[in-house]
Design brief:
By secondary structure, this protein is mainly alpha-helical. It has three helices and two strands; from the N terminus they run ααβαβ. The protein has one domain (2-74).
Length: 88
């Protein structure tokens, strides 16, 4: 399905590798899951995802997203319905 959506021109944002809450997950594990999710979508679509959304993020998630680099945005904040800048 992902390949078909990408072929159609839809944006493929990354929603993580596992469906779990990262609140109590070790930072190293979260980092490895993030790398695996990025690698998987890149392999399937031929392009690295530009957006990130964990949904059940940890205090480390935003910093790890920046550490991975290459993302245009992350959607893990519900503080507003419009995009805005944050310091990391």
């Amino acid at each position: 399905m992902v390949a078909a959506f990408a072929e159609r021109g839809d944006e493929i944002a990354c929603h993580g590798y596992r469906w779990l809450s990262y609140q109590m997950v070790d930072e190293h594990v979260e980092r490895e899951h993030m790398k695996a999710a990025i690698a998987l979508l890149t392999e399937i679509t031929g392009e690295r995802p530009l957006g990130w959304y964990t949904g059940r993020d940890s205090p480390n998630t935003r910093r790890l997203v920046v550490e991975q680099g290459g993302f245009v945005y992350d959607s893990d904040s519900y503080a507003d319905d419009l995009p805005y800048w944050v310091k990391v």
